[in-house]
Write a structure and sequence with these properties.
The protein has 428 residues and is of the alpha/beta class. The protein has 17 helices and 20 strands.
Length: 428
């Protein structure tokens, strides 16, 4: 079964689905295997529930129904199908990666470019070896610009995803201390993320470079690039407007671009969207409209009011770089008495103990009223500061918050996804 034949099945379906719980009528179900599941076990049921075809990699399963298509490896076939489909598209593909801000940046860029083009983008954070193929298979002949978010936690992963998506353009949001367990060091992070620029330099693609970032600035030697930032020499130059407790805004060519985002770390994310809008020929009104239309959700930089407390919920994910940026921005912009509730950062490997202690050391230099730390890593840190309270688990801090409610406070909540810190909202 070659990719062209698989593509015919795909075109004859309503689209690819890999989760048997999310089947749609006439879909093409791809039976993937995981550590604790085997999609082949659900292939027959998928057909019974309305799937038109199911891709399996166990021959004995395929014998049961002509709508079951056998291949050697369903994941590899999914990736090859996506690569084949990408080559049938007329769309320009923009790939983006980075340590922090990928999804926020992707949504901002999508909103801006949709003001002029038929634009489709990665849904949620489907940005890995499964998510990227699914994203590409969600693009169609009407798509003019496709935005593909790429995540990675080890070397050569971005390069692999580039071979599938074959982007025309690329940008890196930033380089931070994320996934150190897989990348090994900050140098490893930079090398891994820069695989996107390496790919584009080999294929004569265009790099969108944040000229304020020294790690990106050096890529200006590449023939095809477009720079942006506060540097006066940037192709798209703007100024970040910093005002306490107000949504972020940019000044470009004497005009204000407004957003609904908070947190200084989001400035460069907005800057990316503004720069791409300018590059693709949008006028000021279109760029401003697209930026302002994006309202954060899904635990990303959300401003919530709970009683008399104003809460910045940024609990979708965390690493040392994003944690430091969030703390610094929160401290600099807090109007009332400030409290932070921080959860463990994951995937740091041998760097975990030092990284968590460094965050606590930073917190101790601030004028925060209380510092509440949650998780096994934070619970192992050391402090003599009376403002610091550590809790080994969510249940422990829930008990504390139940007994010691807050009023008239500004509260930052941030931690890795697995900490599910949003569950604390009901106690605030």
């Amino acid at each position: 079964m070659n990719s062209a034949q698989l593509h015919d099945y795909y075109k004859d379906s309503s689209g690819v689905v890999t989760d048997s719980r999310k089947l749609t009528e006439n879909c093409f179900f791809v039976a993937l295997r995981g550590e604790h599941f085997d999609g082949n076990d659900f292939a027959e049921t998928a057909i019974e529930l309305g799937a038109k075809y199911a891709l399996v990699d166990r021959p004995e399963v395929a014998e049961k129904n002509p709508q079951l298509i056998a291949v050697q490896n369903t994941l590899q076939s999914l990736q090859e199908l996506a690569q084949y489909h990408r080559n049938t598209l007329k769309a320009k593909i923009i790939a983006l990666t980075g340590s922090n801000g990928k999804t926020t940046t992707k949504e901002l860029v999508k909103n801006v470019l949709a003001e002029k083009f038929t634009t489709h983008a990665t849904y949620g954070n489907l940005n890995n070896q499964i998510g990227v193929p699914l994203t590409l298979l969600g693009f169609n002949e009407e798509t003019e610009i496709g935005i593909v978010e790429m995540g990675a936690n080890h070397q050569k992963e971005i390069d692999f995803l580039c071979q599938i998506a074959q982007p025309d353009f690329g940008l890196i949001t930033n380089f931070g201390q994320a996934h150190l367990e897989g990348f090994g060091s900050m140098e490893g992070v930079i090398k891994g993320k820069s695989e996107l620029y390496e790919y584009l330099s080999q294929t004569q693609g265009t790099l969108f470079l944040n000229i304020d970032d020294p790690h990106q600035k050096k890529w200006r030697t590449h023939t095809h690039h477009f720079t942006f930032g506060e540097d006066k020499n940037a192709d798209c130059c703007f100024e970040y407007i910093k005002t306490n407790a107000s949504p972020l805004a940019l000044m470009m060519e004497g005009k204000i671009i407004e957003s609904q985002l908070y947190g200084d770390y989001n400035f460069s994310n907005i800057g990316v969207a503004v720069a791409l809008g300018k590059y693709f020929g949008l006028n000021f009104e279109q760029i401003n409209s697209g930026v302002y239309a994006y309202k954060p959700n899904n635990n990303r930089s959300q401003i919530l009011q709970k009683g008399s407390n104003r809460i910045l919920l940024d609990a979708y994910n965390a690493n040392p770089s994003s944690m430091k940026a969030s703390i610094t921005s929160f401290v600099n912009n807090t109007q009332k008495k400030g409290i932070v509730i921080l959860g463990d950062m994951f995937e740091l490997g041998s760097h975990a103990a030092v990284a968590h202690q460094e965050i606590l050391n930073l917190l101790e230099t601030t004028d925060l009223e209380q510092i509440l730390l949650v998780g096994e890593n934070f619970d192992r840190t050391e402090s003599l500061d009376s403002r610091v309270h550590s809790f080994p688990s969510l249940e422990a801090i829930k008990g504390f918050l139940s007994q010691s409610p807050f009023d008239e406070r500004e509260i930052l909540i941030k931690g890795s996804r697995g900490m599910t810190l949003e569950s604390l909202l009901e106690y605030l």
